[in-house]
Amino acid sequence: MPYRRPVPAEESVPSPGDDSGRGAGARPVPGHDPRVQWVVSLAVVVAGILTIRPMGFSGRGLAVALLFAVNSAALLARRLPEHRVSPRLALVWLTLGVVAAAALIGLSSSGTGYLFAFFIAGHIGYRLETRPALVLAGLCSLLCGAVLYLRLGPGHELLPWMLGVAAGAPVVIGIVNRSQRQAVRAAIEAAESAERAARAEARTAVLTERGRIARDVHDVLAHSLAGINMQLELADALIDTGDLEKVREAHSKAHGLVKESLKQAQWTVHALREDALPLRETLTAMLASSGHRDALTVTGTVREVPAQAVQHLLRIAQEALTNAARHAPGGAVAMELAFAPASTALRIRNRPATRRAAPGTGSGMGLIGMRERVALLGGTLAAGPVTEGPHQGDWQVEAVIPQ
Fold it and tell me: Is the distance from CB of 85 to CB of 63 less than 8 angstroms?
């Protein structure tokens, strides 16, 4: 199932320092219910409508009404997402809200106006960085405390001036909420990153497995069918010569290749099912079925080889034997399985052909597949003619797998 980021949703925390602002496309923070923010903000506005006096269309009533409208707008603007409001604009809007809240406390004859200053101060800590938030909260406390202490308007009769000084205290709640939100977001982003990495790793594993299956199918079908086809073509060509004995021999080899293909198909099924085949016994059986008995030599201290390494070594041996039968028919084949302290090596050598090879070329994928198999195990593969020593003139394939 493809990975999909959730649709952006508003987020908030139920406190004076709550906020809906968030980056575009970010996941909502668990436990933050935006409905609580709306309920609290609307409750403050409704309480102001019902209690703040005087409100009218002239004189002090008009001034109070305008200040109430500005405070309500500043409070409800907390719902604006952060990515839609620049930090500078947020600073201007919140400063205007603080000044309007302090003026409303002084001009109105109700203490309800204090709630605007209280909740706006909380949001200052949530929306702004710590330093400007503390400065603006200090300005809020200074203005509200000064209005009440200096008795600028009728509001001072209802509220003590110390309460005005405490108007900026909710900034601490806002700062704490902002820190928590950032920590939760960081955890969510880390989880998303880990999820994406896991999906990418899984996809890479699937592609690697597909490549392995493709190599196995190539080893079994392409080479086996190619050998059978060569024998049948040879039989067709011999029919015209009237040499029935050679025709029977070609057909017999074709039948032998069919049986060999069935065995190889069984080996491939075992490999795809991750069944661990015994390495030495399977190599011996492969050589015998190819007409090369007692051709396996084992050197070093025998130890158990990991199942994955066994699978790849068997496929490499199968590829090498098939190539030897195709390109050097009649040539003797020798195989050596060498156990060293830090590696396991498999060498397959074949002598030059003793009879004419059938025309045609392979797919060119065999050697590539062998190199891919060894690379998956962190080993090396060398293939080419032997240029010196007692086996000079032979063709050798050597795969070395680290222990």
Answer: no
Task: Give 346's DSSP letter.
Answer: E
pLDDT at 264: 66
Q: Give burial (CB, 10 Å; 0-12/13-18/19+) of 163.
A: middle
317 vs 339: CA distance, rounded Å: 16
Candidates 297, 307, 288; CA nearest to 338 is 297
**pTM attached to this predicted model:** 0.49
The Cα angle at residue 91 between residues 86 and 95, in degrees rounded to 5 = 150
Q: What is the pLDDT of residues 174-200, one digit of tens each?
A: 999 999 988 988 999 999 998 898 888
* Chain centroid, CA 369 distance in Å: 28
- Listing DSSP states for 285-325 in one string gives HHHHHTT-TT-EEEEE---PPPHHHHHHHHHHHHHHHHHHH
Residue 337 phi/psi, 5-degree rounding, is -110, 110
Largest pairwise CA distance in the chain: 128
- Which residue pairs from 284-290 have beta carbons closer than 8 angstroms and sit at least 24 positions apart in sequence? 286/314, 286/317, 286/318, 286/321, 287/321, 287/333, 287/335, 289/259, 289/260, 289/263, 290/260, 290/321, 290/325, 290/333
Residues of the chain where predicted confidence (pLDDT) is lower than 70:
1-34, 155-156, 209, 212-213, 215-223, 260, 263-276, 357-365
* Tokens (6 digits) for 95: 């400063």
Nearest to 214 by CA among 373, 79, 395: 373
Cα gap 370→397, rounded to integer Å: 10
What count of Cα atoms within 13 Å lies in the side-chain half-sphere of residue 175? 14
- Please, are residues 209 and 311 in contact by the beta-carbon 8 Å criterion? no
Local structure of 247: helix, strand or coil: helix
Phi, psi (rounded to 5 degrees) for 90: -60, -40
pLDDT for position 3:
39
H or E element, residue 203: helix 171-217
Single-letter amino acid code for the residue at 240: D
Checking 329-333 for CB contacts under 8 A at 24+ apart, the result is: 329/353, 329/354, 329/355, 329/356, 329/357, 329/358, 330/354, 330/355, 332/292, 332/295, 333/287, 333/290, 333/292, 333/295
Q: Coil, helix or strand for 227? A: helix
In degrees rounded to 5, what are phi and psi of residue 332?
A: -70, 150
- Are 384 and 324 in contact by the 8 Å Cβ rule? The answer is no
% of the chain exceeding 70 in pLDDT: 81
